[in-house]
Sequence to fold (325 residues):
Amino acid sequence: MVAGMAFEHPIQELEAQLAELEALALRTRLDISSEVEALKKRLSTAIEDTYQALSAWETVNVARHNDRPMTGDYIRHMLDDWVELHGDKAFSDDRAIVTGLATMDGLRFLLVGHRKGRTTKDRLACNFGCAHPEGYRKALRKMKLAERLGLPIVCMVNTPGAYPGIGAEERGQAQAIAENILEMLSLKVPILVIVIGEGGSGGALGIGVGDRVLMLQYAYYSVISPEGCAAILWKDAERTADAAAYLKLTSEDLLKLKVIDGVIPEPPGGAHRAPTVTMDEVRRTIQRELDLLIRIPPETLVAERRRRYRQLGVLPGRFPSVSAT
Fold:
């Protein structure tokens, strides 16, 4: 269980009781179906009540849950065909970002996503989803290839942030992210961005510029992690939950602020409880959104994309309107 998910303890106790009852029903001839059904109703109510009242910090912990579907899970579950593309042709192949040509129900597109890894070995190989500059350069090279091929782009964001190490800074981390943001504003193919878990800082923005930006219900998207914010503002890790609340990082907050365009609902209790249901919903969302976006002329796509990002954070009546060019 993710640290900080103490709010799930009552739910887990009910789940354990339900498992015991069901096991007892299998071992004996006792008719305890009514008790099982009653416990299932209690469990369903507990999950619904708990997840309707999540704090921002609790939402962050749900987004980080190890059983939550990751980019690799979506690739295996959703796609009919997949050809991974490697390397930035300059330094190395950063495993923290995966790119490849995807086919799903006859729909062809380029998939770009953060890759975290689930086992300790894979997490170390993927640097826990914290990409180096070569990862962002790899992503941009493949996105420009998609533009030449006329393929739409789907970006799956799931990172605590870009890697801040000395080596990454020496190889131009900030420049690589900035170039990606600038270039993605001008790509003449549809770009769909989905935050599937963590959306941390510039690490998320490096592949996060799109015509449509969506979030899973219990994902988060923020300029900085709550821990980093608490350390900078108060130098106190005990204020992490306060930082999460002030950052307005939940899907509900960001939809109100018009930072994102929509929220993809998750099953009761979060995606980690029903990964297949979540991935099927994301699959339907990709099909629906790309079907709409590919109908829009390239010049209109670029103009509207630039207008969207230039208007982020502009307060009505306080500043003049911005041009789309």
